[in-house]
Predict the structure.
Amino acid sequence: MTLTTSDVVLSPSGDGPSLAPETLREMFRFMLLARTIDERMWLLNRGGKAPFVISCQGHEAAQVGAAFALTRGKDFTLPYYRGLASVLVMGMTPTEVMLALFARAADPSSGGRQMPAHYGSRRLKIVTQSSPVGTQIAHAAGIGLAERIKGGDAVVWTSFGEGTTSQGDFHEALNLAAIHQLPAIFQCENNEYAISVPQKLQMAVANVADRAAAYGMPGITVDGTDVLAMYEVTRRAVERARRGDGPTLIEARVVRMTAHSSDDNDRTYRPSSELKRLRQHDPVVRFAAYLQEHDLLGEDAERELRQTIIAEVDAATDAAEQAPLPDPETLYDHVYAP
Amino acid sequence: MTLTTSDVVLSPSGDGPSLAPETLREMFRFMLLARTIDERMWLLNRGGKAPFVISCQGHEAAQVGAAFALTRGKDFTLPYYRGLASVLVMGMTPTEVMLALFARAADPSSGGRQMPAHYGSRRLKIVTQSSPVGTQIAHAAGIGLAERIKGGDAVVWTSFGEGTTSQGDFHEALNLAAIHQLPAIFQCENNEYAISVPQKLQMAVANVADRAAAYGMPGITVDGTDVLAMYEVTRRAVERARRGDGPTLIEARVVRMTAHSSDDNDRTYRPSSELKRLRQHDPVVRFAAYLQEHDLLGEDAERELRQTIIAEVDAATDAAEQAPLPDPETLYDHVYAP
Amino acid sequence: MPEINLLEAIRQGIDEMMADDARVFVFGEDVGIRGGVFRVTEGLHAKYPGRIIDAPLAESVIVGACIGAAMNDTLPIAEIQFADFIAPAFNQIVQEAARIHYRSNGDWTVPMVIRAPYGGGIHGALYHSQSIEAFFAHVPGLKVVAPATPYDAKGLLKSAVEDPNPVLFLEHKKTYRLIKGQVPDEDYRVPIGPADIKRPGEDLSVFAYGLMLHYALEAAQTLANEGVSVEVVDLRTLRPLDTRTILTSVRRTAKALIVHEDNLTGGFGGEIAALIAEHAFEHLDAPVTRLGGPDVPAMPFAKPLEDAFMPSPGKIAAAMRKLAAY
Amino acid sequence: MPEINLLEAIRQGIDEMMADDARVFVFGEDVGIRGGVFRVTEGLHAKYPGRIIDAPLAESVIVGACIGAAMNDTLPIAEIQFADFIAPAFNQIVQEAARIHYRSNGDWTVPMVIRAPYGGGIHGALYHSQSIEAFFAHVPGLKVVAPATPYDAKGLLKSAVEDPNPVLFLEHKKTYRLIKGQVPDEDYRVPIGPADIKRPGEDLSVFAYGLMLHYALEAAQTLANEGVSVEVVDLRTLRPLDTRTILTSVRRTAKALIVHEDNLTGGFGGEIAALIAEHAFEHLDAPVTRLGGPDVPAMPFAKPLEDAFMPSPGKIAAAMRKLAAY
Ligand SMILES: Cc1ncc(C[n+]2csc(CCOP(=O)(O)OP(=O)(O)O)c2C)c(N)n1
Ligand SMILES: Cc1ncc(C[n+]2csc(CCOP(=O)(O)OP(=O)(O)O)c2C)c(N)n1
Ligand SMILES: [Mg+2]
Ligand SMILES: [Mg+2]
C-alpha cells in the first residue's frame, strides 16, 4: 500500500498536529542551528580551514520533524552523511560537530578518523556510520531484530538518499524488517540527485515510496520541506513500530540546496535556474514564515534567536579549532576491542 | 502495476491461445522428456551412480510454456538449476544433460567441472550459470543492455526461485532493466520453499509479482502448472520486450514435487500431507489430461510417446555413462582465455 | 571423556553458550526446523524459541543485521550456509564489521561470530568447496579461526562468542563427521590466538590448519617411519597470527613447509612464508616451501579433477621428503 | 612527445578504444555528463552517445551487468567510483567474472575491464583511501594491473580492453594529476604481465607499483647519493605476476625489499616475498623485507594519522639503508 501526504494531516496551512508553541519554536531553533552550522562549514571550507563539507541544507525539516517524533536516549538513529540536523536533535552539540569537521582528537564520532559528517555516539544511540551507502539500513534492521529478541520497545530510525535505494542492501534490509515486522522507520531523503545522477536514471518509479509495495510495508511520500508534516508522519510510524505493527518507509521530498559536497561542482549537470527554483522550497524560510503567520515567533524574537545561534556557532568553531589534532601514536588504537 | 492471471487468456479450460495441435504435442513431449530424465536421475542417484540430483519436477509447465515463446538460437536464456525443461526446449539433448549428471569430459555445460544442472551452451545462447543464487539476474540485465547498445532485437530470459528474490542482485538487476526498459523477461518459479524456508519467512508479500511495483515494471502471477497460461503470458512479455517497451516480471506458481535436492530430506520440514496435495497439481498429468480431453493425444499415441522417450533416455544414459571422465591434466585448462 | 565429531562439538558449543546467555542467537538460512543443511543447529530451534532464526536468502543482510544486533546488546552467530556464499556479504564484513570499532574510535563494538563451512574434497564442485581465509585474514579488525579438532572447535567457538570483536569461524566440511576426538564434559575455552603444536619434531616444521592439519599429521607419520622427525603446528587462529610459535619452531628445525588447500598464489601461506623468511632468515637451512591448491578458479566436480586439485597426505609427504633432503 | 598526466593518459586510452571499436562502452556512477568524479570520462559522454552510461548506485549490478554485456559481444569498461566501494561487487567479480571461462570449460569468455581508483594520501579517510589489490590478485581467472606512469597507464588500458579476460585496472588517485610523463601520439600497447625495471641497480632490488613506485624511485635517488645502488622494479601487473623478472633481479642483487601501501599482513607483498624466499633462497644475502601500511583497518582522515599511515620516501629510504647495511 502506498499512502501519500493526503492521507495524513500535514500541511501547516492546514491545522497541523497540536504541538505546543515552545516545541514548534524548538524545532525551528534546531533547523536554524543546523543551517547556520552548515553555512559556517562552507565558509571554513572556502577559507581553507575545513578540507571537506557535505551538506544538510534543504534537508533540515525532514530530519528535525522526524527526530522530534523519536525518544532521545532510547531510540536508535542511523543517519547518513546529510544527517546534521537529526544528530543535533538527538543530542550532539555544535562543538562536537565542529570537532569532526576539523578532525580533532576529541571528535566523539571518530576521533578525527572519519570524514566530517560521519556522526556517531554510543551515548546518544547514534550508530557509527561509514561511507559505503546503504549498509546502515541492514544494521537498522538488525537493531530492530535484537530489540524484538530482547523484548524491548525501542524503535530504530535510519536515513538515506534516493540513490541509495538502488543498492541491494536497501532491498535485503527492508525485506527482512517486513518479514518480522521489526520496529524500524526507513527515511529516504529524496533530493532527486545522486551526485549528478537524476532520479530518472536511478529508478523507473515516480516515488521511492512505491518501493514499499515490494515488502508489504506502508510507503509514504511526504513534503520533506514541511517540518510538521514530517513530524506527524514519523510520529504515526513510530507509534506503529512501538505497537509491534512493523516498519514504515517514509519518502521525504527534499531539495539539495548545495553541490553534492565541497568536492563537487553541480553547475556541470544542474541548471542554475533549477537551483533558483529549489531555493523557493527552503524549509527554514518556510517554517519561519509559518511561525510568523501564526504569531509563534515575532521578528525580534527571531532576530534574537539568530544572534544566539550565531554566537553559539562562533564559540563551537573556536573551541573546536583550538582543540588538538590526534597524536600519530593513536593510529594503532582500537583496532580490536579488549 | 500487478496483473494477475485473470488479466490474460490462460486456462486451458478456457479457449487458450491458438497453438497448432502438433505444437501442443511438442510441448507435452518436452514436459514428459524432462520428467522422464529427472526421474531417471533420481534412480541413478539412489543406485549410487549419480552423486547429486536437483530436480525440475513440478516446474516443467512453467519452463516449457515460457521457452516456447522464445526464439531458439536468437534469444538468450539464463535458467537456474531447476531449468532442465527449459534447456531441453532451447536445444540441449538428453545425452548432453546426462553427460553433466555423470560429470563426463564431453559435458558441454562445464566438462564435468560444475555440479549437475548447471547448464550452459554458447551455441544455444544458454548462459553458463553458477551456484550463488541471483547473480544471473544481473547478467540478464547486462545482456539486455548490450542488445540495446548493439541495436539488436534479441530478448533475454532468466529464471530463479522465490527465495532468490531476497537477494540484492534481484533488486539491482530489475531496477536497472526497468530504468532502461531493457528487453528482459524475469521468470520467478515460486515453489513456496527455499530449501526448508517457507515463503512467509522469505517475504511479507503474497506474490513475488508484487515486487514489480518497486521497479515500475509489470508483474504477473501465473499458474505455473498450466503450460498454456505460461506460454501466453511469456509470449506477451516477449513481444513487449522486442517492441522496446521493457521488461516483465513473471511469477510462475509451481510445485516442488521432490526434496530440494538429493542431499535434502524434506520430511523434516514439510508434512507428507502437503506433498500429497501438491501432487494433484502435477503439470505433466494436468497437460496430458487436457490433450486427451481435447482429442489432441490419444491413449495409444501417449503410450507410444512414453516408450520413445524412455528409449531416448535409456540411450542417453548409456552413451553418457560410457563417455570418459575428464583427464586430470585438464584441471589447468581454461583458467584464462587465450 | 566422550568422543564426538567436530560437528557435534560445534553444536555443543553453541548449545551451551545459548543456555548460559540469553543474548546469544543464531541467524542463517535453514538453521531453524531444518537444523541447517549440515545439521549443526539440529534440535536447537525447539530448545531456544525465537533465538534460532531462519534468515531470508540474502547473505549481506544476514551479516549486516547481525552487525546491528551486536550493537544492540545481543551476541549474534551468523551462519553462512557455504563459505563460497559469503561473497555477497563481503562489504558488510570487511567495510562494516571489521572497521566499526576503529572508525568509532573505540565507541562501538561488534561482538559477533560468522560461521562458515568451507573446504573441499566432498564432491562439492566449484561453489561448494572453496577456501576463503586469505580474503579475511588480511583484514585488520577481524579475527579468523579455523579449528581442526573437536576439542579446539568447541573451545574456540565459545571464545568467539565471548569475544568483543567480529570473529570469522571457519569449519572444514570434510572434518565435520570425519574427525572425532575427546571433549571434556566440563566447561572450557580455547583462546583465540595461540597456535598448537600437534606433533613435536626436530627436522622440519609444517604449518597447517583445518583438514590439511590432519593430512599433515598423516604425512608426518609416514616420514617418521622413514626416519624424519616432523613438527606439525596447528595454526588454529589465522588472525591474529601466532608468529611467536611459528618462528620459535622454525628457528629450531631450520626448515619450514606451509600447507593449505586454498589456491597457492596470494593465499595466506604467503604471509606465513614471508614472516619466516624475514624473521628467521639466519636460522633457515632450506627454502621456505609452500604447498597449496593449484591456481585454478576452484575445485571441479568430476572426481579425477577434484583429486588432482586436493593436496593429499601423499603430496604433503613428498614435499616433506624434498625439504628434509635439502 | 607531449607530456600529460596519468588521468589524461587513461582518458586518451578509453577515448581511442571507443573511437576504434563500437563495442566498447563505459558503465559507472556519474560517468556521464559529470565525466566521473575524477573527470576521467570528461567529454566522452557527448562524443559517444549512448556508450557512456550513468549507472544506478549499485556496484554489484554495475559489474554484473557488464559481465552479461561482455557475454553479448560488447566490451564493457565498468567504473567503480572509489576502489573502497568495489566490496558490494565482490561476489560478481570473484564468483562470476573470474570463474565463467573456467566453469564453462572455455565456452564463455568475459572480456571486461573494471576501473577502480584506489590508494591514499589524498585526505580521503577510511573509505576513500583503500588499497584492494590483495583481495583480487589472489583470484585465478582475474587479471590485475596497477600502472604507475602515464605511458604504462594508457598502454595497459588498451591491452585490458582488448584482453578476453576480466581485468581489474587499478588507478592510484594520488598519481592522477601528480604524475606526468611523455606519451607518444601513435597507437601502442603495454602488454599485461611483464614488470618493468624503472631504475637499474646493483646492491638491492625494490619491488613496488602505483604511487609507491614513485616513492621508491625517490628513495633510490637518496640512496644513490649515499653510494647505494638500488634497482627499482615496477611490477605493473600483479596477476599474472612476472616472477621471472622478480627472481632474476634478486638473484643478481641478493637483497629484496617489497613496498606497498596496503596493510602489511596478508598483503600481496607476502606472495612476492614467499616466491623470492622459495626460489631465490641460495642467492639471498639478507632477509626478504616488506614495507607496507600498518595493520589498522584503514587510513584515517586527520592529517597526523594519515601521515603516520602512509609509507613515505623517507620510510622507504630507511628500509633500503637497513637492508643495504645488512
Ligand atoms: C557503495 C558506494 N558507492 C558509491 C559511493 C559514492 N557516493 C557517495 S554519495 C553518492 C550519491 C548518493 O546519492 P543519494 O543516495 O541520493 O544521497 P544524497 O547524497 O543525494 O543525499 C555516491 C555515489 C558510496 N559512498 N558508496
Ligand atoms: C548466495 C547463495 N546462498 C545460499 C545458497 C544455498 N542454496 C542453494 S539453493 C537455495 C534455496 C533457493 O531457493 P529458491 O530461490 O526458492 O529456489 P528453489 O530451489 O526453491 O527453486 C539455497 C539457500 C546459494 N546457492 N547461493
Ligand atoms: Mg539524492
Ligand atoms: Mg523456491
About this structure: The longest helix of chain B spans residues 21-46. The beta strands of chain B are 2-4, 76-78, 156-161, 184-190, 193-194, 197-198, 219-223, 248-253.
